[in-house]
Specification:
10 strands; 3-stranded antiparallel beta sheet; 5-stranded antiparallel beta sheet; mainly beta; 1 helix; globular
Length: 129
């Protein structure tokens, strides 16, 4: 048997990110899922770029604030205590709108964990909004 408690605030934020990102999988000893906690001020985005994953399914659980998620079809507003799920090959960009009321805090869960499967996505003029 194995158990671990991870003090999230003791995990150093990742450098060179557009918002605070604390990667929790390593400290938690997890190898079948990726878990990150994001905290974004108004105007900050969570990922490094508008992107999709080739194999990973993602779930964003909003702890505080309201998360905006831009997709080719529309922008979703996800309030606290709601979950937003993204299937593989589905482009998205999660962010805290510039006119947001304060920080948004999100627990992002991805499975299977996949380093290097994120593909940059460039929206086209023909994408519906």
């Amino acid at each position: 048997m194995g158990y671990r408690v991870v003090d999230v605030d003791s995990v150093d934020p990742e450098p060179d990110r557009p918002s605070e990102c604390r990667k929790l999988s390593g400290p938690g000893g997890l190898d079948a899922v990726a878990i990150n906690r994001f905290s974004a001020a108004p105007g900050e985005q969570l990922p490094l770029a508008y992107h999709y994953h080739e194999t990973q399914q993602e779930a964003f659980y909003v702890l505080d604030g309201t998360l905006a998620v831009e997709t080719p079809e529309r922008t979703y507003e996800v309030p606290a205590d709601d979950l937003f799920v993204v299937d593989p090959e589905s482009p998205q960009r999660a962010y805290n709108p510039a006119d947001g009321d304060g920080h948004v805090t999100v627990l992002a869960i991805g499975a299977p964990p996949a380093d290097g499967d994120a593909v940059a996505y460039e929206p086209s003029e023909s994408d519906p909004k």
